[in-house]
Amino acid sequence: MQFQHLTDEPERVRLWSLREDALVETGSDDSLLVFTRWGDIEIDDPSPVVREWLYRMSLGPVSLENLLPPRPDNHHRPVEDDPEYDRVQNVLSKLGSCVVHSLGLADMGGPLLSAVPISRKATFQLPRIDADHPVRLSRFAAMRASDGEVVLESPLARHRVVFHRSLATRVIGSLGKATTVADLAPALDVAEALVADIVTYVAAVGMIVFSENGGSAPTARFAEDSDPSLMVWSHSDLLFHSRSKLSRPDAPRHAMYPRGDKVPPPPAVKPLPDGPRYPLYKPVLAEIVAADPKFTEVVENRRSFRKFARRPLSAQRLGELLFRSARIRSVRPAEGGGVSYAVSDRPYPSTANLHELELYLTLDRCTDLPRGIYHYDPLGHALTLIDTSPDKVGELLDDAKAATGAIQRPPALITMTARMGRLSWMYNGIAYATTLRHVGVLQQTLYLVATAMGLAPCALSVGDIEVSDSAFLLQWPSEVTVGGFVVGLRPEW
Length: 493
Fold this sequence. Notes:
- With 493 residues, the protein is α+β, with helices and mostly antiparallel strands.
- It is built from 14 helices and 22 strands.
- It has helices at 48-57, 84-95, 166-173, 181-188, 192-204, 228-231, 235-243, 285-291, 295-301, 315-326, 390-404, 421-424, 431-453, 465-471, and strands spanning 12-18, 23-26, 32-36, 39-43, 99-105, 111-117, 135-137, 142-146, 149-153, 159-163, 208-210, 277-279, 313-314, 330-336, 339-345, 357-363, 366-367, 372-377, 382-387, 412-419, 455-460, 479-489.
- The longest helix has 23 residues, at 431-453.
- 35% of the residues are buried.
């Protein structure tokens, strides 16, 4: 790692610290052990300066200059000229992605910004920026508020940048379009050297892009805008992908119970809404086993239908589909995070048996059931009619019709919602991604059962969530719409 000393006015200070989850302890042989989320790192035979520096780094940002012993002649000397410099550099290389890099001002308490590593592969190297070279914030970078500060994140970066002072936020927030440090400094009334250093720190983590053709800002071209591997991704999709994977070091790797001591676990079964109740048909499983086609035949014949017979779907067949796909077989107690809660067993799997998905049915043509919107009770295997508004029913069915590209409304629409508290109470950061996996699992279960029954199924992505949220009386965002499925009788070819 090459050090860059910041000396221009106003005087800036380069600071180092360890990630908050890193712990420094002394080994039995007087070595130092640094415990990190990626494993333990041993520092053999540390000098007194290295030992003191690591200890202070574990407490917060520290300047290397402040720890170097003074020269006998008391003359100023560059950091690089001190014999301890090489020792510190070797330790930094060994610690790698556990080191937080901060920029501060000598006359200002605390750092301006900090680059916090979030990956074991994180590296930090300050580039040199020409004041007249066009630069811009990456289109994948985004700012958000967090714990009273502003955070800059990008799915392409292995650091997140925390802005501790509004000055740094102003500088980086002005890079939405191509500009230069030389032009930006007078526009913000900030010293050019300070603007350059702030931009340099953010560029070091890959969230500032440089013009590939040089020239003036209005004609600047940036490689990320024409990179085929990046053009296929939107910012939101790539950020969601990178932050919802267990491979990301900052993501949880197991149940965390982040709110176990603050919020009681949501019930395994949602309280039933008010409205007329319609018990559904319960098939005899032994008879189904005898009559069903073989599993391989079902899998091979599975397909999506976008046309349906004009004949209505019967309530009996709808009841059988829901019974075989989504009913609750049993409810049992579980315990975790020091709290007892209930889980359920259903035909489709769910992480930790939490089963956060709810089903709402919008029926257009179904014998023995009025046209309307229903909530499915998986424990009692019954429907509760919650709305018969022709406008809402029509809107939901037309949305499903458009999603399938059909020319007629489907006989029955099954909409999946998620009670997010069921997952986020236990898992932090991956709850929504896990819900989307559950949607796919339930859709596949519905597909296989519908195919075995000879019905015409088709899975849907989420449609107009404002329409469904209103129609199902959801308390958004506690419960959100996440998927859909339509079913009817197969058309007469």
